[in-house]
Design goal:
heterotrimer; A mainly alpha; B mainly alpha; C mainly alpha; A: mainly alpha; 20 helices; B: mainly alpha; two-stranded antiparallel ribbon; 2 strands
């Protein structure tokens, strides 16, 4: 199959899968088989593109031309390749987990859940492969809308209220800020195609560039840079598999991926580096990292704490991109992967705890390590990765971001990373400690591990977190192409 | 003489002559079938005309073989073709799938009369769109208005009567203003033919009467087009009319008035009246912006579904005029394209309302709580059409919003203000469309009412709703036809401007 | 002379305003319609005035007579406009009858009151 056909196929496959899932809704076993099969096929398709990209090719395909130079087109470059491979691969693991979780908790509307999930994955792959801002925007909005039914899954009043915040912030920022930014770019440059080195140089100059950067960064609400982060804690009302894949990987990573891609391919790293008015982004992301960590410190609910931790970690990626050195750009890309493995493990663990014991608060987790050793072992690995302790994936990306910061003597970034590492340790380690070494409250209900698919899934991602520390060479090779494009 | 050369005349003649036949037919089913067939024939003629315009440019037809400017000339360019497509298409689709709903709203023995009035309204609207004669426009405008008053007042809701009365008063004042303006132009130029007028105005020594005429014509047509603040007739008329009628008139009637406004101002006045470009923009742009703000704001807090959509129309008319008030190719293209796309979106939304009304008596948002459970397909179509109204990419609404915003960015300070207003009102649209969707999907039905079983609208109606909804997606992904026509229309309107 | 020569146009303006005032100020719907009729009649006068050619006679061509004619076109136009005006008034009156049946009143403020009470 030609690369162009593969790109189209990997977009259509999950959509076709969604259709089949809907058709098979009455037979749960068949439905879940279709989901798994679609996920595996998608991952194979996406992975089949990697050799070409590693070899430096940039296959692309134009689907439709709207008018005058505006197209819906897809092409694959290293950053998008990484994101698509990540999302599609984790979808397999997450589907296994979903089956255990949704059945274990007797959730309603399971068919709708799987259908929307497949559409969301298609949109995420579309974001990854988008060749221009318009295509990216289209897929971005599809992603927002398709995840809404997942967030509001429970359907009670409190959930609907949270889901309204979710949709309101994401749609509001994208239509109110991102779309004007895109149109501004189009009017100024006459093109929206992602081009190595950027397209804005000489077209938008001075403080206007800082303003445009602001429109982009806050317009991409999914990147959760404060103050547009509120939707992420609100989204935690969703079933845990949704929080795990979408709000630790697909949706939020689509946000930081978009921002990184815009910085590299629309602004151009050098152009932005030469423009002082873009410097605020470093401060905004640094503030978000610290503030989110402090808020996480004060949370009592496990999933909300993880959500705030995610907000902080996302801004690591933004900050790494904003440091604007070659090593830090690689670090941004690597951190997308490393954080994904770690955070999905943590969410899987949170869901496993809920399924087995219905516990959701941090205070209830004392001594749970004895009852759920596999789950808590995986949780510990995930937590260590968040802090950035070797031998976990989190260490690798932090290393690159720090190295990048040293390259340009960026002491703000260095200080922020050190401080936030301490804060991360401060809110993760007590949980781990209490789970393993405190004794359980008396009179607690007896329970064991969560259902097998759940445990299987979370052990896989925990192993991946460890594995990424040792086997990160392919990712580095792929993403160093980003740097080679930089002069 | 072949049939194709008679198409411009047939466009009006077919519905106009079918109407009296329907009255004689007696029998609701026959009348409905006749009206639908005539509408589809008109739609087919409109498509044929559009193809000819695309292939060969402006189509000219001399009524009774009298040469212009003595006889009445029918003249169809890209702008006319677009308006014809909207009008006849809306009529064909709403009639085709609106039968059951109309059968509920109107007594059986009156239905033939109702369908006849509908066709007369269609003939009038089509007539405005084909004619190249200013007085002929007045006659067709009054024909369509009188027939429209009848079909709006035909429903069982008594508030429709007072709403129609208000519409009749304001509509007649608007038409009379237009008549005064045409009279003054005729006084100074001695012609009623648009093309002839355009040439002769340049030779008029004292242009003050022409300026007065421009004022009368602009205000009169603004009344007909429901431009803020002359929109007060619109919300009540839309709300209390029979649901199918609302779908029809919301899709096309105000657009036809806007068409005449553009035709007169750009084609006849702007090339000849010094400073009229600035006057036109200075008069319309603030009204358009205010209309967008007020319409959106009211829609956000409105509790009745039909009235909410009606106020949204007030805002959307503002979009069209805002594009036109930029007085350049990009702006006009955006405005004209938005005529088409808004007709698609609003038509689909009101058709979905027709479907909802088959099951739900109370069309307030609270009355519709949880409706998606009993009518999932209708609700899903409403979501799609709503997305188009908001301007989500991939839908028709996005195309015109994109065109409008990029036109605004080229305008300097006024453009930035306009862009901000458009963006804010898009956000307001997110809010009011979202209020509808949330009530439909997550609202709890009124406590004492028994849960409704899952039962959709009649299949023909549902098919129509989905056809309209899918058209929104189709023209969002393949916008070649409306955008191409709009560009050609803008080109034609701007011939006289530097 | 100048002023008198424009007499018809003055009447046009005055009639127009009289009609407009009635439409706006009178709550009674029949009076509104009467106002509307006056409003339209004013425009008829405008058209009829403009077609008058000084010294002109009725535009009927007779063999062998060489005369100046008034412009016949506005008269034809206004014939159409009068028909439109009559139709509008008739439809308006029909509506008023229906409103009276439905509300029991033809005062606009009272119908609004009754709508609010619903």
């Amino acid at each position: 199959m030609s690369a162009a056909a593969t790109i189209i196929a990997s977009l259509l496959l999950p959509l076709g899968g969604a259709f089949l899932i809907a058709a098979a809704g009455r037979w749960p076993n068949l439905r879940e088989s279709v989901t798994l099969l679609t996920a595996v096929l998608l991952a194979l398709l996406v992975w089949s593109l990697t050799p070409d990209i590693m070899a430096g090719e940039r296959p692309g395909v134009t689907v439709a031309t709207l008018f005058a130079g505006l197209t819906i087109a897809f092409s694959v470059e290293p950053l998008g390749m990484l994101f698509a491979a990540l999302a599609s691969t984790l979808w397999i693991v997450n589907s296994v987990y979903s089956i255990g979780y949704m059945r274990g908790n007797n959730e309603k509307h399971q068919t709708r859940f799987y259908v929307c999930f497949a559409i969301a994955i298609a949109a995420a792959v579309g974001v990854a492969f988008a060749d221009n801002l318009l295509t990216l925007f289209l897929c971005y909005e599809v992603l927002t809308i398709s995840t809404y039914p997942l967030v509001s899954h429970k359907g009670d009043a409190a959930t609907v209220r949270s889901a309204r915040i979710y949709l309101g912030i994401l749609l509001g920022t994208s239509i109110g800020l991102l779309l004007p930014a895109i149109i501004w770019t189009y009017v100024a440059t006459g093109t929206l195609t992602f081009t190595p080195g950027g397209i804005l140089e000489g077209h938008v100059v001075g403080p206007a560039m800082g303003l445009l950067l602001g429109l982009y960064v806050f317009g991409v609400g999914k990147a959760a840079v404060m103050p547009v982060h509120r939707w992420l804690p609100a989204a935690m009302v969703a079933p845990t598999p949704v929080s795990a894949l979408l709000h630790a990987v697909a949706v939020v990573k689509a946000g930081v991926f978009t921002v990184t891609k815009i910085i590299i391919y629309v602004f151009g790293v050098d152009t932005l580096f030469a423009e002082p008015s873009g410097g605020w982004l470093l401060y905004a992301s640094a503030f978000t990292i610290i503030a989110a960590s402090i808020v996480a410190l004060r949370q009592q609910n496990l999933k909300r704490m993880l959500a705030y931790s995610t907000i902080g970690q996302l801004s690591y990626v933004i900050m790494a991109a904003a440091v604007l050195t070659p090593l830090s750009e690689v670090g941004a890309a690597v951190h997308i992967v490393a954080h994904a493995f770690g955070k999905i493990t943590l969410f899987f663990a949170a869901g496993a705890i809920y399924t087995a014991s219905k516990k959701t608060e941090l205070g209830q987790l004392r001594g749970i390590g004895a009852r759920m050793p596999w789950t808590m072992a995986a949780f510990t690995i995930g937590a260590l990765s968040m802090i950035g302790v070797p031998p976990t994936g989190g260490f690798v990306s932090k290393w690159f971001i720090l190295a990048g910061a040293f390259q340009s003597d960026n002491y703000i970034a260095i200080f922020t990373i050190i401080l936030s590492t301490a804060l991360n340790a401060a809110y993760f380690l007590p949980i781990v400690f209490a789970a393993w070494f405190s004794s359980e409250d008396s009179g607690a209900k007896a329970h064991g591990e969560a259902p097998l698919p759940i445990v299987l899934a979370l052990c896989t991602t925990a192993l991946a977190t460890l594995g990424f520390f040792f086997f990160n060479q392919p990712v580095l090779e792929l993403e160093s192409q980003l740097v080679e494009q930089l002069p | 003489m072949s049939v194709t050369s008679q198409l411009p005349a047939l466009q009006v003649v077919v519905p106009l002559l079918t109407a009296p036949v329907l009255v004689l037919l007696r029998g609701a089913s026959l009348a409905w079938a006749g009206a639908t067939a005539a509408s589809f024939m008109a739609f087919a003629i409109a498509i044929a005309l559009t193809l000819e315009v695309l292939a060969g440019g402006t189509q000219v037809y001399e009524m009774g073989a009298w040469p212009a400017p003595f006889g009445i000339e029918l003249r169809i360019d890209a702008l006319n073709a677009l308006v014809l497509l909207i009008t006849t298409g809306a009529s064909a689709l709403t009639l085709l799938c609106g039968r059951e709903s109309l059968a509920r709203d109107i007594d059986e023995d009156r239905q033939p009369l109702f369908y006849a009035a509908w066709l007369v309204a269609l003939a009038g609207l089509a007539g405005i769109a084909v004619t190249g004669d200013a007085f002929n426009v007045f006659v067709f405008m009054e024909i369509s208005s009188l027939a429209t008053y009848i079909i709006i007042a035909a429903g069982p809701d008594r508030r429709a009567l007072t709403a129609t009365f208000k519409y009749l008063i304001m509509g007649t004042i608007g038409a009379t203003f237009y008549l005064i303006g045409v009279g003054l132009v005729y006084m100074m130029t001695g012609t009623l033919n648009f093309a002839d007028m355009e040439v002769r105005i340049a030779d008029v020594a004292d242009q003050r009467p022409i300026l007065v005429a421009a004022g009368f014509i602009t205000v009169g047509l603004a009344l007909k087009a429901a431009v803020f603040p002359l929109h007060v007739w619109l919300p009540n008329a839309y709300t209390h009319a029979p649901h199918v009628v609302t779908a029809f008139i919301a899709a096309c009637s105000t657009k036809v008035a806007i068409y005449v406004l553009l035709r007169f101002d750009f084609f006849v006045f702007q090339g000849n009246l010094e400073g009229h470009v600035v006057q036109f923009a200075g008069f319309l742009a603030p009204l358009a912006l205010l209309g967008i703000v007020v319409g959106s704001a009211v829609a956000v807090v409105e509790g009745n579904l039909k009235r909410l959509l009606a106020y949204s129309s007030v805002a959307q008319i503002g979009y069209i005029l805002l594009g036109a008030s930029f007085s350049n190719a990009a702006g006009l293209t955006a405005g004209v394209a938005h005529m088409f796309n808004h007709a698609l979106a609003k038509g689909a939304l009101f058709l979905a309302v027709v479907a909802l009304a088959m099951r739900f008596k109370d069309l307030t948002l609270d009355g519709l709580a949880g409706a998606a459970r009993s009518m999932p397909w209708t609700s899903a179509a409403l979501v799609v059409a709503g997305a188009s109204l908001v301007g989500i990419p991939g839908t028709a609404g996005f195309i015109s919003k994109w065109l409008l915003l990029s036109a605004a960015f080229e305008q300097g300070t006024l453009g930035i203000v306009s862009a901000i207003v458009v963006v804010l009102s898009s956000l307001a649209a997110v809010v009011y469309i979202w209020r509808i969707i949330e009530r439909l999907y997550f609202g709890e039905p009124v406590a004492d009412a028994p849960p409704l079983p899952r039962q959709e609208a009649p299949w023909l109606l549902l098919a129509g709703v989905w056809l309209a909804a899918l058209a929104n997606i189709y023209f969002g992904l393949v916008p070649g036809l409306p955008v191409g026509l709009s560009e050609a229309a803008a080109d034609g309107l701007l011939r006289h401007l530097p | 002379m100048e002023l008198l020569g424009l007499f018809n146009y003055w009447v046009f303006a005055v009639l127009l305003m009289v009609g407009f005032y009635a439409v706006i100020a009178k709550p009674n719907m029949i009076k509104k319609l009467l106002g509307l009729a006056i409003f339209q009649a004013a425009v008829f006068l405008l058209y009829i005035t403009m077609d008058k050619v000084e010294g002109g006679t009725a535009p009927i061509i007779q063999a062998g007579v060489d005369a100046i004619y008034s412009n016949p076109l506005p008269q034809v136009l206004i014939l159409t406009a009068i028909v439109v005006g009559i139709s509008t008034t008739a439809l308006g009156l029909a509506l008023v009858v229906r409103i009276h049946e439905a509300y029991g009143t033809i005062e606009e403020d009272e119908t609004q009151q009754k709508d609010l009470e619903e």
